[in-house]
Amino acid sequence: MLEISELRKRFAGGPDAPGGKVALDGITFAVRPGEMFGFVGANGAGKTTTMRIVMGVLQPDGGSVHWQGKAVEYADRRRFGYMPEERGLYQKMRVAEQIEYFGRLHGMDAAAARKACDDLLERLGLTERRGDAVEALSLGNQQRVQLAVALVHDPEVLVLDEPFSGLDPIAVDALATALQERCRGGVPVIFSSHQLELVERLCDSVGIVSAGRMVASGTVGDLRAAEARTLRVVVRDPLPGWADGLPGEVTVTGDRHVLLASEGDDQEILRRAMKAGHVEHFGTEQPSLTEIFKEAVA
Amino acid sequence: MNGVLLVAKREIATHIRTKAFVIGLLITAALVAAVAFAPKIMGGPEEYTIGTVNSQRLPLEQAAPEAKFEWRSYPDEATAKKAVLDGDVDAALVGGTKVLTDGEVDSQLGVLLQSTNREVKLGAAGNIPPLQMVSVGADTRYQAARTGMAVVLVIVLFMLIIGQVMMVAMGVVEEKGSRIVEILLTSVRPWQLLAGKIIGLGALGLINLVTILVVGVTASIVSGVAGDFPPGMPGIVAGVLLWFVLGYAFFATLAAAFASLVSRQEEVGNVMSPLTMLMMVTYFGAFFTTTDPTGTLAEVASLVPPFSSMVMPVRMAAAEVPLWQIGLSTALMVLAVVGVLSFGAKVYQRAVLRTGARVRLGDVLRAK
Question: Which of A256, B51, B222, B365 is the most buried (most CB within 10 A)?
Fold first, then answer.
């Protein structure tokens, strides 16, 4: 289990922020092996800072990162896979050489690095581009190479900062599939994203950060359950003033009246609606992750 | 250590197959060969003034019809010697057997005098003794060759050091700016990355330098210029290699430290300017040394790091240097390199992950 506890980080102030800026204010969460953890939050909320601390790129002012019950050290991180926020590849280096190089740096011998590289190129559909310089590839393909670099040494933990940004739907699927495979193999995967539908689709659990704090975390189902349910009733051509005294708000579109209520007796509302007109829809709304997110960071 | 080697290997593998490296190597090799052949092709002065004391004029014009000769007679050897030393004549023929010169005789003139002398006396019986060449000035036999070598050396050392040092700086910024460094530093330590880069690019510089030395020495032997080389050439060559390594290590480490303060290639020139200035001063010092290798300035500069890294090898090529000075200078430079390595590694380690705006050196040093 990867446990992130009480991370704190303050950046030194510049001329525009003399007191410094609090980036992390006690971030805590855990990711189990085989779990895909979606990390969401507004820009500047602290996602990247958290991931950089997990990867040892940044030193926290306080708090700790544990992997398998032990404080994470340099030797552990060599077995982690990382994709930084801004893509880092040697532009002039060839694709296969680059992937092998990073494999070797992670301690693989030449033969193992070569084999892992070949497998990844095959799986990511890059075999034909293996001899090309990275700069000759499209953004989507560069991103695949970047993922290959993060995966080449068969990491125990994956930390990916915005792996899906700027990709077309096909590239997104290819990347998602590759991540899911690793996840099924028992690797905890943390990734950040602003594409909330994608996070909702892929992730077992989600953490929402705002201003350096984890404001909500858990499975998408848990988060939904915690959210106040909204009752949605659609009545066609009702008697005027039918909803007077009922909780919630009514919006009128043509002859359809839509009542959204988050409290009150649903049976009472149903009776009143049926009396007033033709009920077309009656049900509780599942809040989407986007709604949960907006609610959480508000 | 494995990490250092991997990083160094990548640097070598990446740069050695670039067009810039291959073409650069070919051009420098061609230039050095040209320099070695230049004295042969350009020839010496074609006007000679020759003095005579109790001697017949030799029919030099027959042997070298394109050259011009002017003859002056002197009453005795003393006045002839004075004329030689004053530079009124290039050489003075005394008694038909001896030639006085100031320093080493001009090689073409020497050959001319000897061969014409032999032809003239061919009719005479017995052995024909060759003309005795006597220098009445200081022993400057190797001066021309030494100065020539020193000048070539200054340029080669400077170009190689500044070239490789700039590559180190650009490489550091490339990795920092693209954030590759964040991935690299999860698998290697900062000092390994720094050392690997400096060693790799230094090895490329050495490949260049060794090529230049091999081409230069070979071309000199082929062209015959090597005959003018002073004794102790292996020592001079070994010295050049040693001083290149020391000078490069010094400047490259500082370059990596300065470059790690910025995140964009456009800022490299700016952040490097103090270091570029220091290299230029060193270069001018070394160049000045070629004109006055025994002066106080050259002597002092060849002892003080980092100036010694270029001034000392040039001084060693241009003149004899006492052994203790070479030893002292080497020891001081090694100390300087060690100091710069620990300073540079500290700055690099602290600054290379601080992306964004330029990091101030003071902040880096103050940080815990």
Answer: B51
